[in-house]
Amino acid sequence: MTGAALQDGVILAELADVLGSHAVLVDTADRERYRCDQSGHAAGMPIAVLRPATTEAAAQAVALCAQHRVAIVPQGGRTGLSGGGSAIDGCVILSLERLVGVEELDAATMTMTVRAGTPLEQVQEAARRHGLDYPVDIGARGTATIGGTIATNAGGIRVLRFGMTRHHVLGLEAILPDGSILSRMGRTAKDNTGYDLKQLLIGSEGTLGVICRAVLQLRPWRANSALALVGLRDHAAALRCLTSLRQRFDTRLIAFEGMWPDYWKLVCHDSGLAKPPFAGGHGFHVLFEVELPDNEGPGDVEDWFAEVSENDLVQDGVLAQSLADHGALWRLREAVGEIDDALGPHINFDIGIDPSRLGRFCDQADRMLDALPQAGRTVKVGHVGDGNVHLLVAHSGLSKDVKIVEQAIYGLVQDYRGAVTAEHGVGRLKADWLRHSRSDTEVAVMAAVKSSLDPHGIMNPGSVLPCVHRGAGHFGSK
Ligand SMILES: Cc1cc2nc3c(=O)[nH]c(=O)nc-3n(C[C@H](O)[C@H](O)[C@H](O)COP(=O)(O)OP(=O)(O)OC[C@H]3O[C@@H](n4cnc5c(N)ncnc54)[C@H](O)[C@@H]3O)c2cc1C
Hints:
CATH topology of the domain at 102-220: Uridine Diphospho-n-acetylenolpyruvylglucosamine Reductase, domain 3
Strand content: 15-25%
Strand order of the largest sheet: 15-12-14-13-17-18-16
Radius of gyration: 23 Å
Bound molecules: flavin-adenine dinucleotide
Oligomer: single chain
CATH class of the domain at 102-220: Alpha Beta
Structural class: alpha+beta
Low-confidence stretches: 472-478
CATH architecture of the domain at 102-220: 2-Layer Sandwich
């Protein structure tokens, strides 16, 4: 037995003492199952998967890992697309999947106290049973956890109206890398007593601590809405359409999702993942949703259609008339979650650009990719109202080809002063590209925060920032 294996054995025995052996999975098949997030990025193999059921048990496990300098990769539903929840060699996976459930829902203050491993959809459903809603919504809602969505500051399809996850978190409880518990489960929107530490943890992708519980701000549930799909000439027409909808419906416009012709062709024609509700041939498609007052029909939206068809802004359009229509229209946009087989190996760029320049950026990216032999088929879809495009580029599967395509696209993002990730997070896949969006000073401040909270670099090393782990040395970095 090697020294490293002996050391692992000692650590695992101590973890089993603290958590119970049922909560420490060491079988190869189990470790393999938890090894990667949805990105498929496989950086290494964990020595164990820890599944604590309480904050206190998780804190004891973190303290032990800190003592032995064992790296910890926190994990929620593993729907992440940036490799931030994927294992590195010699780490432990800290899965929050047993820390589940809504602890309290206070209808008067419209707040919910929830444990980190609870799936987002369960939170939405629990709120709706009380006539309330948690407005963060993403395609992976059934599996993504509240902890994971907070750790990544998830965006999604309703950011235009309600903002990112960080706008809805009132209180947070997290375990710091030394095993201490930082708890501020506040319920007030106003609290200026010093630094807002929860905001530091939100979006930190498991590199500063393990989120265990949260207090969420809910809002009244408005079930009534009008959903429409429109065919437009191009992205510029989509921007005019967005302005027109905002002027008319203001904050009642809750979603504005764009689909480029390359995406439309793959989803509706080549793969059959979704059915087009009208004949194609448009330069751009937009799916938009407008909140309606209770018991009111979509008359307002029909009036808007009549107005814009007079000025030729909209080439074709369809308004959902039933729940089935509603599902079929959203299917067009959410089919991106099932596109992997049709596209083969691909890079999933998640780019943020000033919305008014997004169309130009995409045209330039297309021209650049056309000229690159390393780039295969390209599709574009996204939260265009937020300036966020998901640009998927097929490739050979060879890492040298991936690097060339990334270099080209992230170079362009840098020219546009955009974000190399708008919502999915940096994770391990984009850590090398952080400086294409952040200045040296910004990266230095991030590194200083990281090393002050996590001096031994045990908390998700190699994710977000280049690896600074100073551990026992028997496990890898990036
Ligand atoms: C079909 C599909 C659609 C998607 N749509 C969107 C979208 O519209 N918008 C969007 O923003 N994202 C989207 N995503 C990405 C993904 O769903 C989100 O990033 C989600 O927030 C991840 O949640 P999770 O529980 O699966 O976290 P994981 O994938 O398990 O982890 C994600 C990151 O958070 C960390 N982490 C997880 N839980 C904790 C915790 N309790 N404490 C500390 N760190 C933790 C992990 O270490 C990792 O770095 C989509 C993914 C899929 C597969």
